[in-house]
Amino acid sequence: MLYSPPISEIMSTDIIAVNRDDDLETAELLFKKHKIRHIPVVNGDVIIGMLSYSDLLRISFADAVFEDESEVDALVYNMFTIDQVMVKHVVTVPAAATIKEVAEILSKNEFHALPVVDDGNLVGIVTTTDLINYLLKQL
């Protein structure tokens, strides 16, 4: 049997997160500044939701319709809260979960990131990109 290391070996531990009270403009700035596509929504160290860049694109039609999209985005983002847009029932994995187990979860679902939680606290995040990079290193 092949050895499958724990996800803790490839997960990101430098977590960019938002609180449910933050606004969607803040989230968009974090997505763009850090070049990420998933942001955990936390209450302290406890994950309460996940927000993806796709979630923001779903509520914003400005990119396709208006030249000055920043003004329209601000208007649209003020109509919604992070709490309304985030996914609330988040699938998580422990840091001891194997890379194979995480790959199976991601391959069977419609999301591309999993928060890593130990003792109820968010300790990392793993994405499909992390898995692909791991596989590329193996070749």
Question: Which characteristics define this entry?
Answer:
139 residues; alpha+beta; CBS-domain; CBS domain; CBS domain-containing protein; CBS_dom_sf
Protein model, in words:
With 139 residues, the chain is an alpha+beta fold. Helices cover 42% and strands 20% of the residues. The protein has helices at residues 24-34, 53-59, 62-65, 69-79, 82-85, 99-108, 128-138; strands spanning 18-19, 38-43, 46-52, 113-118, 121-127. Strands 1-2-3 form a 3-stranded mixed β-sheet. Strands 4-5 form a two-stranded antiparallel ribbon.
Helices and strands: which structural class?
A: alpha+beta
For CATH, the homologous superfamily is named as CBS-domain
| CATH topology (level 3) name | CBS-domain
Gross morphology is globular
The radius of gyration is 16 Å
Task: Give a quick rundown of the structure.
The protein is of the alpha+beta class and 139 residues long. It contains seven helices and five strands, in the order βαββαααααββα.
Helix and strand layout, with pairings?
Elements: E1 18-19, H1 24-34, E2 38-43, E3 46-52, H2 53-59, H3 62-65, H4 69-79, H5 82-85, H6 99-108, E4 113-118, E5 121-127, H7 128-138
Parallel strand pairs: 1-2
Antiparallel strand pairs: 2-3, 4-5
InterPro entries: CBS_dom (IPR000644), CBS_dom_sf (IPR046342), Diverse_CBS-Domain (IPR051257)
Domain CBS: 11-69, 86-139
Keywords: CBS domain
